[in-house]
């Protein structure tokens, strides 16, 4: 017989694979009448658990949600979903009728929570059209003191930018629809200014996914992911120009995820993620050319990741499906 003063009920995950870190998100995206809410992420030695709600707000149309097509990107690596046979996590049904809400947990391999930020991608389908939801998870800001000590707060990953630009031109982005201008000469960053707010107006953002500082120091370009456009600001953060709308045509985007300029600052390259292509523009946003299509052959892509290498001559390489493809 066991005598106890009290009994506490705990989840089995706390025993089998307790979370080392919990990131609360409560971030929602709505596209094509489908609302996806990312509630939280649990990091453990065994797996990474993503808690999600999918709400079909369409009145008469059933949608499909493919949890097995979910992906996460950290650094230059892409991770697929995994399974756990020890715990019966709730799953999101693949077929979701109109007006139905589904809650579930999507599992990935164990991921680092003190290193690179995460990109999470989820995929639904409505009337045979794929609808993708991309969430940027800011992990680096969770441990600012440790990063200052290690001098790793964008110092190593942005070494090229720091060497080419004065400290005042070092730019970063956050998940709060704002763009920040920090300065550091010794690894200790000081916030100088913040630009932007949530919205669709000039100088406003809806998930700024990437940023590029013009080599000439004249402009700052931001990939405004969910507004499907590129915005150009001056060095003081004042709005200068914008281009792009949702679509598949020249100069249109479906998830502009990353951006880069050539060494002269005359040309801008944009990763158009859901359109599986790269588009080239002049510095004023005039369309020049595009390359890439859906597929796994040379020059084709199933998912363009947000990692690239800047070569001395030209922005010429992209990580696609874990391989490095080169374009002339």
Polypeptide structure, described:
- With 328 residues, the protein is mainly beta.
- The chain has two domains: 12-137, Immunoglobulin-like; 152-326, TolB, C-terminal domain (Neuraminidase).
- Helix content is 5%, strand content 43%.
- The protein contains three helices and 24 strands.
- The chain has helices at 12-16, 144-150, 159-164; strands at 21-31, 34-43, 48-56, 63-65, 71-74, 77-79, 95-96, 101-108, 118-126, 129-137, 172-173, 179-183, 190-195, 208-213, 219-224, 229-234, 239-243, 256-261, 267-272, 277-282, 287-291, 304-309, 317-320, 323-326.
- The strands form six sheets. Strands 4, 5, 6, 7, 9 and 10 form a six-stranded antiparallel β-sheet that branches. A four-stranded antiparallel β-sheet has the order 1-2-3-8, with no helix packed on it.
- A hairpin with a 4-residue loop joins β16 (229-234) and β17.
- It is globular.
- The chain starts with 11 loop residues before the first helix and ends with a strand.
- Residues 145-175 and 301-328 have low confidence and may be disordered.
Described by its quaternary structure, the protein is single chain
Average pLDDT reading = 76
CATH class of the largest domain: Mainly Beta
Q: Largest beta sheet, briefly?
A: 6 strands, antiparallel
Share of helix, binned: under 10%
- The count of DSSP E runs of length 2 or more, i.e. the number of strands, is 24
CATH topology of the largest domain: Neuraminidase
Radius of gyration: 21 Å
Secondary structure class reads mainly beta
Could you tell me how far the N terminus lies from the C terminus, measured between alpha carbons in angstroms? Answer: 75 Å
SSE pattern, N- to C-terminal: HEEEEEEEEEEHHEEEEEEEEEEEEEE
Number of helices in the DSSP assignment: 3
